[in-house]
Amino acid sequence: MPVNDAHPGYDSPTATATVTVVYHSVHGHTRVLAEHIADGARLVPGTDVHLVEIRAEDVTAGRWYDAGVLALLERSDAVVFGCPTLMGSASAVFKAFMEAAFTPFVSQAWKDKLAGGFTMSASQSGDKLSVLEQLAVFAAQMGMQWIGVGDMPGNNWSGGHRDDINRLGSWLGLMSQSHTDLDHAHAGSRGDLITAERYGDRIARLTHRWTNATPYETSRMTEHEARALSASLRAG
């Protein structure tokens, strides 16, 4: 189901907006989540979407650097940060990238850009909230404006399911969970990936509103409507 189907009456923007999803992935699971966020953002007309992987190869003596990536982020209207949750914290490679943002921090180059975040772990909790808090604080230090997940919680009642939208009940940012014995082809759940697309769609639409003064229609639903949507997606 295309994520825009859940946003009836949405008018396509005429101006452009640039959204960049920048992430680190160890085994490919977080990459899948990043790709679905990017796919959701691309569904919004007029959105120029970039998917950038932070690589361990670009870390030398503990310091990350890639001039091309930094230049892209400087011209982006919104940046979505993502990495796996490892030992209750952001991955070391992504931390190296965050520390390398000291230069745009000093010049306030990213100030007033929109931001969001996502993370993946093997455990149901895995202390993923700790990572989302790290990403949100990082964005705040950069002077950015944070966008959280806007969906109602799923899988929190007897009729719930792993494939529900926002099944982990996270709003600060997007959370997903993958089993340790399955490769990236089985990353997350169907509900996690749909939630990722919806998050990318939300960020793109808000970016158009923020940068181009594009009219924005808030999508709202009750908990009952959210459960019905998850059920229809499972049936489909």
Instruction: Describe the global form.
Output: globular
Percent of residues in helices = 25-40%
> Helical stretch count?
7
- What structural class is derived from the secondary structure elements? alpha/beta
- Topology as a string of helices (H) and strands (E): EHEEEHEEHHEHEEHH
On the 0-100 scale, what is the average pLDDT? 90
Low-confidence stretches: 1-13
> What is the number of E strands?
9
Gyration radius, in Å = 17 Å
Give structural notes.
The N and C termini lie close together (8 Å). The protein has seven helices and nine strands; from the N terminus they run βαβββαββααβαββαα. Helix 1 (29-42) packs across helix 6. The model is unreliable at 1-13 (pLDDT under 50). The protein has 236 residues and is of the alpha/beta class. The longest helix is centred in the last third of the chain and has 23 residues, at 190-212. It has helices at 29-42, 67-75, 92-100, 102-107, 128-141, 190-212, 223-235, and strands at 17-23, 47-53, 59-60, 63-64, 78-86, 89-90, 114-121, 145-146, 174-177. Strands 1, 2, 5, 6, 7, 8 and 9 form a seven-stranded mixed sheet that branches.
